[in-house]
Amino acid sequence: MQSSTSATPASKASPDARLTARLLFSTTVAALGGLLFGFDTAVISGATDWLQRVFVLTPTTLGVTVTSALVGTVIGSIVVGRPADALGRRAVLFVLAVLYFASGLGCALAWGWWPFMIFRFIGGLAVGGASVVSPMYIAEISPARYRGRLVAITQFNIVLGILLAYLSDYVISTLNLGNAEGRWMFGVMAAPAAAFFLLLLFIPRSPRWLVAHGKTQEARNVLQECGANKARLDGEIDEIRASLDLAHQRLEEPFFCRKYRKPILLAVAIAAFNQLSGINALLYYMAHIFEMAGAASHSAYLQSVIVGFTNLVFTMAALAIIDHFGRRRLMLVGSVGYILSLSAASYAFYTHTGGSLLLVSLLVFIASHAFGQGAVIWVFIGEIFPNRVRARGQALGTFTHWMMNALITLLFPVVAANSSGDPFAIFACCMVGQLLWVIFIMPETKRVSLEQIQKQLGIE
Questions:
Q1: C-alpha angle 68-72-76 in degrees, rounded to nearest 5
Q2: Whole-angstrom distance, CA of residue 9 vs CA of residue 12
Q3: Do 180 and 258 have their domain in common?
Q4: CA torsion 224→229→234→239, rounded to 10°?
Q5: Residue 394 lies in a domain
Q6: CA within 13 Å, CB half, 427
Q7: What is the pLDDT of residues 379-414, one digit of tens each?
Q8: How many CB atoms lie within 10 A of CB 363?
Q9: Alpha carbon distance 244, 146 (integer Å)
């Protein structure tokens, strides 16, 4: 028996390799919720002109149509917590897959404006739920040494989903489908949603949820399958039990109080500035923006693909260096890039130069976002709140993010209808405000322990 436990390095490595493969498979499947999140968010960009034509929309009703999904997103992100605790993370992911499928198919077959709005709202529920449950599930199956990198796969998949949506819209636009074109753009999402549902059958339930519901042996098996050290399994189970007890105690502590004022204001500010850059409004209306600048429909779709690819590349670059470069530096670079690119885009519309200048300015804009706010926002919000209220702090940041998103998306086509350059000028002014906030208020959290951050913010 002694010799079997002190095995050769090769025999020790093989279980880890097998377990790592199991962990990566489960992570990849759960992160498909993020990919569908990104796809559902951006796919409407290629269909705005189709929506206006088929449903006879004004700029105001177009804004309402695009915003319908965001209302679902806000509600989904708020209400998904209780079902995830009661039914389990994996069970809720099954439900989200069904909602994605129903939304894609329903939007494709919608027989009127109101049915279309309802199915987009259903898709929004799935997006809001996935933004919470996918990273939650991945964090709970991951050993501590892999957790950060594995959870980051969700963010990568969201950006990849946005690129795939633009690419899908571009390919469909080349098929000359006439009035059916927009229906195919939305309907194509049903295929990956169905694949997501089927793949979920092959991943385990969350060990944290299993322990909370008295299924300790199954939790032990899942932890072992996902790379946990055999010798520490009982210790990990005890840690999960202790964290569950602590979570119950945290609920008794008030959140909106003087003690947490600084992190609350920081979280609200960074989440609000994230949307005041105009990032999501531009993602939703990307092809429409290029067409406003005079690009042909086919060219507008291709330019959207280029923007989506730039987003993916710079997101990967930022995630690779964020722990070395620092949060404030990334935000400073991103803020300057925002101001220059948005000012150039506004100038392109005001002077009717459009074309190449607009494309270059939007590429710089999306690179600035991916390298700055896009990479920093959720890391920063997760760091500035103490352990005992971190979940509520992240919920506040998420709520602020989606509410500002809905408001700006609703107003964008109305403001742009007056003058195409106005929204970009407004966003540029807001980013001057962000730059000043970063310089004078935002603390640096790079390589600072969570306990030390707490002290810096005056939290006892």
A1: 170
A2: 5
A3: no
A4: -100
A5: yes
A6: 37
A7: 888 788 886 777 778 788 888 998 999 999 999 999
A8: 18
A9: 22
Query: What average pLDDT is seen over the chain?
Result: 86
Q: Is residue 235 part of a domain?
A: no
189 located within any domain:
yes
Q: How many CA atoms lie within 13 A of 198 on its CB side?
A: 6
Distance CA 115, CA 162 (A): 24
Q: How many structural domains are present in the chain?
A: 2
Pairwise pLDDT comparison (363 vs 375), residue with the higher score: 363
The residue written with tokens 């690419």 in the block is: 167
Express each pLDDT in 105-148 by its tens digit: 999 999 999 999 999 999 999 998 998 889 888 878 877 667 76
Domain identity same for 272 and 376: yes
Provide the residue range defining the domain that includes 312. Answer: 254-460
* Cα dihedral value 137, 140, 143, 144, nearest 10: 110
**CATH number reported for the structural domain that contains residue 184 in this entry:** 1.20.1250.20
Alpha helices in 145-251 (DSSP H): 147-173, 181-187, 190-200, 207-212, 216-225, 233-250
Q: Residue 240 falls within a domain, yes or no?
A: no
The CA distance from 16 to 37, in Å, is: 31
What does the block give as tokens for 430?
Answer: 């807001």
Q: What is the mean pLDDT of residues 231-245?
A: 75
